[in-house]
Amino acid sequence: MSLAPRAVLVHRTTEYEELLARHGTHGQAAFFLSARGRSVEAVRERHERAHRALAEVAGAVPLAWRQTRVERADLDRFLFGPEDVVVVVGQDGLVANAAKYLTGQPVVGIDADPGRNPGVLVRHRAAQARRLLPYAAREGAAVDELTMVEAVTDDAQRLLALNEVYVGPPGHQTARYTLGLDGTDAPAEAQASSGVLVGTGTGATGWLRSLWEQRSSSLALPAPSDPRLAWFVREAWPSPTTGTTRVEGLLDSGRGLRLTVESDRLVAFGDGVESDALELTWGQTIHLGVAAPRLRLVH
């Protein structure tokens, strides 16, 4: 007998909850913010809107379903099942945080604070959850299959990201490495820079786009569902031993970048989550390309 669907409600700790954890009471949090010209009431109102949205979504889960909740900080320890319908209640970035831990489960993005989020990934309102959840569990539900980026090291460490993967120094030092491209006979180029960014069409609305605009690039950035990636080298430095001829490009499915570390320590992390970084040491190689899994985001 197949299991009934399980609604997994993904949420994050609110700013108000973080303030209470730090300062102990509402009054102390209010004093702390007022000394900086901010009002605790505005923060509490956002907290209440987020919790109302979460409660409304929880109440919309069909009675025959199972349901559970997972906080953002616990995603790396949570086991998603094939029968899950993942309901992200929060901001666009929370969808990206969850995406790397999924294996094809449908995702419903619920905007917990309409008007404050772009709504690129959290496209729906809490009031629509009662209709959306049964629809998402159906075979053939309309979804956007969003391309993801994958980083794999030569010792089999693996990282997935929905927006982008950054490879570079953990601080403000210079990253030294050689950069090679799959499918070309050209030799790898030794480079010194502040890091390399490889991103998707979804990420092309954020960090990736800022680099694209900064250098007035002529590259056509991919759309979210395009099976292509864009990549940029940040602040490449020319010297007698390092070059700057490979600083941007596009990667089709099946092609990738090879980066071999020539520094004491570099890191690779996805979607801005530095706490979940891969550690890279001298001589280690990391390969970056289009990931096989895709995020299935419900219309």
UniProtKB/TrEMBL annotation:
One of its GO terms (molecular function) is NAD+ kinase activity. SUPFAM superfamilies: NAD kinase/diacylglycerol kinase-like. Coiled coil: none annotated. One of its GO terms (biological process) is NAD+ metabolic process. PANTHER family: NAD KINASE 2, MITOCHONDRIAL, PTHR13158. This is NAD kinase. It comes from Streptomyces cinereoruber.
